Amino acid sequence: MLCCCITCQAFAKKASTEKWDISADKLVRYETPRRIIAEGNVILTKREKLPPQRSEAEIRAAAWSELLEEKLEEKAPAADDVDRSSTPQYQSTMTVQADWLAYDISEQTITVKGNVQITTLDDQLFAKEGTLNLVDETGSFSEATIIHKGNAFHLEGKIIEKTGLDTYRISKGWVITCKLDENEAPPWSFSSSETKIRQGGYAILKHAKFNIRNVPVFYTPYLLVPVKSERQTGFIVPEISSSHNSGFGFNLPFFLNISDSTDATFYPEYLQYRGFRPGLEFRYVASAINKGMLTANYLNDKLSDPSETDYFNDTGYTHDNSSRYWLRGKADHTIASWQSRLDVDIVSDQDYLTEFDSGITGFDKTQSRYVETFGRGFQNQSDTLRENTFKTLRSWEGMSLQMDLLAINEADTNAGNADTPLWKLPSIDFSGVVPINETIFSLDWDTNYVNYWREDGIGGHRIDLQPTVSAPIPLGPYLESRAEVGLRDTIYLVQPYGNAEWDKDDIQNRLFPEFEIEVATTLERDYFLNSESERTVSHQLRPYVIYGYLPEVGQSNLPQFDDIDFIDSKHLITYGMDNYLTTFTDNKGGYENENNYAELKVEQSFDLRSEASDQPFSELFTELKWWPLSGTALSYKTFYDVYDNEFTRHTFESQYNNSRGDYLTLDYSFNQDENIEQLNAYFLAHLVNGWSAGGSIEHSFSQDETVEAKGSLIYQTACWSIKFETRHTPDDTSYLVVFSLANIGSPLGINF
Fold first, then answer.
1. Phi and psi angles of residue 612, each rounded to the nearest 5 degrees, phi first
2. Phi, psi values for residue 354, rounded to 5°
3. Residue closest to 104 by CA, chosen among 26, 25, 22, 11
């Protein structure tokens, strides 16, 4: 056996093959067998040659060929076209570090010992020792750890076998899907006798145990765990609940990644006292403005049996159906300048949304997901007439055309109404404003056609035409003024449906003029807080007077579809004053920061009609908005009866939020006519060391009861979180526990 000492000096030396570079404190080459032994600070780097960069002319030619679906002809470069001065470019795709390394050149394998670290484009492997085939990148390592760069999932094992480019087999090891600090014990982990990491990011565990701080708390003979951050098929962390009415509940969602732009989530939920309540959510996204989501739940409710008298007596619910469901969905699409919106909301009974408003598929979480995705949610959960609409809109300069379809789902199964809800099949609105030649006049119009259909009751066709001519009135340089003169014509073709009867003429018409004039002025003054202050307060004061006239019109022969079908006469003077306080701060950058500070609006009307002569003054309306600090907003609205000297309605709203994510809202509303007096409060506070608390309360003073109260306690770290939630209503008390692991169940958090 011959050997040749490449170097005996104390400083590092290098050796290279076609694809590999080796550097170490000491290198020894053996010819029989052909090996290289490296000792001390060993670094083995794999180099891959990058393709040569194409010239701009070649890139343009390839782009045109692709556009025209032509095959680009390959030609050998001429001698003059070759840049002889260019050097090949390489990329390092794997780096092996160790205290000692033996490189078998013939077998293309290495044996490494001591502080082994192998870094690829996706993973880092740490081990005590091991072997690696450099051709297919397979090998075996003892006392090894793998950290994936994509989402930092963490693998450890007594023996880890690298079975492919990004596939592994682990003996007596564990898996955690988040990054750990050096020497940190895992807060949770999946351990198993054997683990296989397959390409695509799945860990298959045999005889798996779920551990908390290395203490096993759950066992299963087989477990599939997703270990990459991309959307992929797999189970989501389960949801556990407990309720007085529903009993113990368990939901194990399953996420199905259909394609890069389409997915579905299955919710196989079981409720102890009610039965199986499966759910499904389907989502797709074609672009940022073209997307859709559809969610459904179904329950054959055991508690809806008439014999369950305690359930109905305790809750006060009135539904009599055992087949209970909620189908909801939304879709947004823009095609050829037409913006379309689809909203679906179908529920089986009037109690469903109130009873099932917590959990992953409950009303609250569903509302949050849809608002986050589409910017709009659903009607209040207590509304029994659920609107299902399709709207499409196109706008031109100064004009718009909108078509709506409206179908009503009547959730109140015990309503017993003689007339069923009105559907719009369809409703078409055409409105706009255009100048009249080069004059100061402009033409405004609002045209509406509706076909009202219902299963039982009076329906029919209605055309509402409302053209208006408006113009400013030159009363002086300090006055703003305008006048509007309009004509409104409403035409009906009445049609009875079902058993309904109509005893008047089928064709009806209502025609009347209307007139309005407004005069206002704006006063403005700036206040400097002091001579050296960089902050300025601007006060705008706008008093105004509006006169409106609409004659009394006979409308007793008209069908009553909505508020357009009865319009009260008007002979009214409305006066008020708007106040705006705005702050400006000079940031010494050549521009100013503008912030709203406060608004105050006061308005009242005086009725000139003879029948209102005893009490011609309307209620005094006042609205105050105040933003005293950053993240703080206060609002107060009130209506004051000047004759009875009392407040008939007032609403107080307040909101606070900060950069940590804490928030608090407090709302109070009072309505004397509707016997409403209610207080609503919502809050979330981040405490210490990953703990946060949240809650809400809706209390009705008029009914002397708490309508709903919720509370939650959340603990969150980088690797996991747990949420304890409770909900209390006069009819039920429920508890919910949600345990989340890092990078597992993340599809629910994806934003389309």
1. -105, 15
2. -70, -40
3. 22
Residue whose pair of structure tokens reads 């032509």 in the numeric block: 70
- DSSP string covering 131-179, please? EEETTTTEEEEEEEEEEETTT--EEEEEEEEE-SSS-EEEEEEEEESS-
Residue 497, SS3 per DSSP = strand
What is the per-residue burial (b if ≥16 Cβ within 10 Å, else e) of 658-674? eeeebeebebbebeeee
Q: What angle do CA 82, 84, 88 make, to 5 degrees?
A: 100
State the DSSP H helix or E strand holding residue 358, giving kind and residue range, or none if neither. none
**Contact 626/655 with Cβ under 8 angstroms?**
no
> Is the backbone peptide bond immediately before 628 cis, with ω within 30 degrees of 0?
no
What residues contact residue 306 under an 8 Å CB cut-off, 6+ apart? 320
How far apart CA 467 and CA 486 sit, in angstroms, is 6
* Contact present, 126 and 116 (Cβ < 8 Å): yes
Each residue's pLDDT tens digit, 246-296: 999 999 898 888 988 899 999 999 999 999 999 999 999 988 889 999 999
Mean pLDDT, all residues of the chain:
85
Cα–Cα distance measured from residue 477 to residue 529, given in angstroms and rounded to the nearest whole number: 30
C-alpha span between 495 and 448 (Å, rounded):
18
Residue with tokens 């807080």: 529
Hey, which of 53-57, 71-75, 569-573 has the most confident mean pLDDT? 569-573
How many residues are listed for the chain in this entry? 752
Q: What is the pLDDT of residue 536?
A: 84
CA–CA dist 611, 93 (Å, integer): 90
Residue 374: phi, psi to the nearest 5? -110, -10
- The span from the CA of 521 to the CA of 482, in Å, is 12
Pairwise CA distance, residues 623 & 618, whole Å: 16
Distance in angstroms (rounded) separating the CA atoms of residues 49 and 37: 26
Report the alpha-carbon distance of residue 470 to residue 486 in Å, rounded. Answer: 8
CB neighbour burial string for 266-302, b if at least 16 within 10 angstroms, e if fewer: ebebebebbeebebbbbbbbeeeebbbbbbbbebebe
633-644 pLDDT, tens digit each:
999 999 999 999
Provide the token pair at 234.
Answer: 């797999």
CATH 2.60.450.10 fits 3-50+89-234, yes or no: yes
708 closest CA partner among 736, 685, 688, 679: 679
SS3 of 362-412: the string is CHHHHHHHHHHHHCCCCCCCCCCEEEEEEEEEEEECCEEEEEEEEEEEECC
Residue type, 536: T
| Among the listed residues 479, 560, 552, the one whose alpha carbon sits nearest the alpha carbon of residue 517 | 479
Copy the structure tokens of residue 528. Answer: 């400097």
> What φ, ψ does residue 236 adopt, rounded to 5°?
-100, 155
C-alpha pair distances (Å), 401 with each of 426, 447, 464: 13, 10, 15
Which tokens hold the place of 313?
A: 């007596």
Beta carbons within 8 Å of 723's beta carbon, 6+ residues apart: 712, 713, 714, 715, 736, 737, 738, 739, 740
Domain positions in the chain: 3-50+89-234, 417-527+542-555, 604-674
Asked if 542 and 521 count as a contact pair (C-beta separation under 8 A), the reply is yes
Summarize the confidence of residues 653-680 as an average pLDDT. Answer: 93
The DSSP code for 310 is: H
Q: Outline where DSSP puts E strands in 55-108.
A: 90-104
